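Example 3.2
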Amino acid sequence: MEASRATTAVAPVLAGARQTAADYLALTKPKVQSLLLLTTVATMYVAGDPSVGLVALTCLGGYLSAGGAGAVNHYYDRDIDARMARTANRPVPSGRVAPRAALWFGLVLAAASFVELTLFVNLLAACLALSGFIGYTAVYTVWLKRTTPQNIVIGGAAGAVPPLVGWAAATGGLDWTALYLFAIVFYWTPPHFWALSLLMKDEYAKVGVPMMPVVRGEHETRRQILLYTLLLYAVTQLPFCAGGFGATYLVASMGLGALFIAGAVTLYRRADRRSALRLYLFSLLYLALLFGAMVLDAKL
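Structure, written as tokens:
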């Protein structure tokens, strides 16, 4: 009987601890992190032959930095998150995590990232990761997101930093190939995010966030998606033209790029939610396969 009572008393405590851990993990936006880490790891293997330990330490630092940025974003956007159905149950607007706790959590993660990367990887990688943190929090979240429909274009540079971190971690420096990989992610971000924003237009309009479909309309957003997809296709050919990759990458980049353009054209013509969702989901697969093709090309 006593054991049963003890178990009954402990169960709520354990459940609460699990919920708290899950909430703090959610602050780091782990789903977003997976693609960032993939580009980091792929870039490291394109740049050289890093040890498993170096890759793990770089990923740890990258996760801490991007996770810290995610937590600060949760803190700053708590007012609009509470008013959108998709985000109302996030840890901060739901009240499960105090706003100040989320802010300090994010800042501590960013500081830990800088220290960890400086000590165990190199200073350049640490500074680049810190620039990504500042870019996402101060530039995108605080400055651009609520002021201009170009928020994701300019602010997207923060999400393009992981390949630079990976290259710096593997080589200790940067070169043109690293900058091309940065540019690929930079130009990939607008069509990827704008496809999602078409699905979230009403939510963004409700809270006054000037995303492209809200300010310029859905037709202009679809046109911009097609334009940036064409620009992305051109940018993906630059590493091959510069001699950074060979035929394997060229075939993959052309094939994947053609599918991306076809999806953008379909969305432009049909103007329906299904086409927007399909393009958004394909954009995730596109980036993963493209960076995978880079590694395959480099190691063949």
